[in-house]
Amino acid sequence: MQRQQRYIAVDWGTTNRRAWLIDREKGALESYADDQGLLSIPAGGFEVSAREVRRKFGEWPMLLAGMVGSDKGWHQVPYISCPADLTALADGIYWLHSGAIGIVPGVCQTEGQADVMRGEEVQAIGAVALGAVGPDGLICHPGTHSKWVRMQAGRISGFHTMMTGEIFSLLRTESVLSSQMQGEPVANSSFDRGLEQALDGAPLLSALFQIRAEHMLSKRQLDGASFASGLLIGCDVRAGLATARPDDAIAIIGNRELSELYARAIERVGYRSHIVNDGDAFVAGMRAIVDHLDIDQETAP
Amino acid sequence: MQRQQRYIAVDWGTTNRRAWLIDREKGALESYADDQGLLSIPAGGFEVSAREVRRKFGEWPMLLAGMVGSDKGWHQVPYISCPADLTALADGIYWLHSGAIGIVPGVCQTEGQADVMRGEEVQAIGAVALGAVGPDGLICHPGTHSKWVRMQAGRISGFHTMMTGEIFSLLRTESVLSSQMQGEPVANSSFDRGLEQALDGAPLLSALFQIRAEHMLSKRQLDGASFASGLLIGCDVRAGLATARPDDAIAIIGNRELSELYARAIERVGYRSHIVNDGDAFVAGMRAIVDHLDIDQETAP
To answer: Among A74, A202, A281, B224, which is disulfide-ready with A126 (CB 3.0 to 4.6 Å)?
Structure first.
């Protein structure tokens, strides 16, 4: 990447996009978010869309990460295998426009259970750079597809994805439970009831049906959205913590509302956690990658 | 119900309807199925729809069961509480048209985990009447909402519902896994792989994502529909058998294809099972209820 004073970092996902103007010394100067994720970009439209970002921030070099590097994105960038570190991510960048625009690769796991990520790897590396997670820490990344990422000596050593957010959304919009699942999930007694059941090992497929049964029986006022959220997050956290070490303090990287629900679940199992802002982690990760590229250039023969 | 030589029994569900003309001595004479489930009946249209059934079979008394007795059906018939036996079901029938048409109540569970059923109770009672399950047997009823029903002294003593079929369908039609889940699930190596993982206790939310990851990595040819089916049925059966007794032989009441997948899972856990045709079980259950009504009438003062 051309070494200029500023560059633009973009977290370019399936539905949304967030962009930051970053000064090499001062850090993030400006940011904005829009709905120009992959689903909104017409075929062959990434050039035009990237130009729009530059129109806001100026003609700086750009570094992109997330689903923009997938088969549905601008250019399919091969995954880096675990264990994946900063060097591997920087070396795997795919360069467009003679190095003016780079796309950071995703990370895959081929040993054991197959898994893939695109975007979360930058945040994981960033959380370590920020000191928000230790070099051997455990990261929980809630979302449509939540990720549990194990770091080892500062590298992404392994991870697994849970379809928690997507299944919640399917149940809420398309299932027999829909009409009992309106409203946003909150940490109320229904959430805690679902959480307790999940942490006790209740089978998800059966426990969910209580929402329907209690409605039919008018048994009591169950907040279906919060109960289902508690159940699903409980299942997620129970599985995510299955390999945790007693001294792990889990770094939760995500938006505040959802992260707080996960924090509640993690605490209930007996682990400590702290929430790391996902935007901060992303910016820190991109800065770490750019710094690494700079060092590479300086030491090049 | 007027005591005539013949009557019509109807399993009237949300999406489909099946009707039988039953002779008191000879049993089922004729049957047919159509798509005139609750969703196809306009408001106030049950009278007309029932007349259509009689047009095929003649002006016989009718006994209806299933979702036709729900709040979305012809008339909401209160649930009978567990433990529920033949007497309770017969006494709970709601009579229309001066006793010419009856709607069998569903069964609810209010002790422990709340649960409800409408229609499966007739098949459970019928399976006992047929001798296909012992009076203390365990019944597995696969479907959109599968049911595991424990009989005790010939009564429905408790049950629980799993959202297995509905979640499979949501994943197949609406999720990020959809394009890898086309085709019907069959008992192939992908099914067995999903089944093994579920029976080993793999977390469903995480295991499902292998369908996506392996596709992205082009790792191997996974049949996503069969793998997901194996996973979900494995989770269902694992939970369903959690309270089974060592000598239980599970009666699976359902259609042949799905029942065979469940039988495979049940056998893998080490239990015996046998498949009972769901239509046969329903007819036997309705006959048992009608016989019971007749005895009641004979012994009435």
So the answer is: A281
